[in-house]
Amino acid sequence: MIKPSYLLTGPELGEKKAYIDSIRTEIKKQYGDEIEEYTFYPYDSNMNDVIGTAESLSMFSSFKLIFINDTAELKK
């Protein structure tokens, strides 16, 4: 089952990549559609851009994957 959001922490990039690949595979199996993917970084992105991307409708796919990388860099 595809959940609306995931939080993947820790340094193990190989395990995270494998898990994300399994999510992509499940999405394609359920929706049979192309997936739009967006990557944001806290130090060069505005949260309004991230939220706007998540809320906007797509003309080309029925599913989006939005990655926010390096969240350890977030400051209060």
- Placed side by side, the strands forming the largest sheet appear as 1-2
Low-confidence stretches: none
What form results from the Cα inertia axes?
A: flat
Query: Care to count the β-strands?
Result: 2
Q: Summarize the helix and strand pattern as letters.
A: HEHE
- Whole-number mean pLDDT: 85
Alpha plus pi helix count: 2
Instruction: Supply the helix-strand structural class.
Output: alpha+beta
Q: Give the N-terminus to C-terminus distance in angstroms.
A: 33 Å
Percent range for β-strand residues? 15-25%
Helix content: 25-40%
C-alpha Rg (nearest Å): 13 Å
Query: Largest sheet, described in full?
Result: 2 strands, parallel
What's the gist of this structure?
The chain has 76 residues and is an alpha+beta fold. It has helices at 13-31, 47-55; strands at 35-40, 63-68. A two-stranded parallel ribbon has the order 1-2.
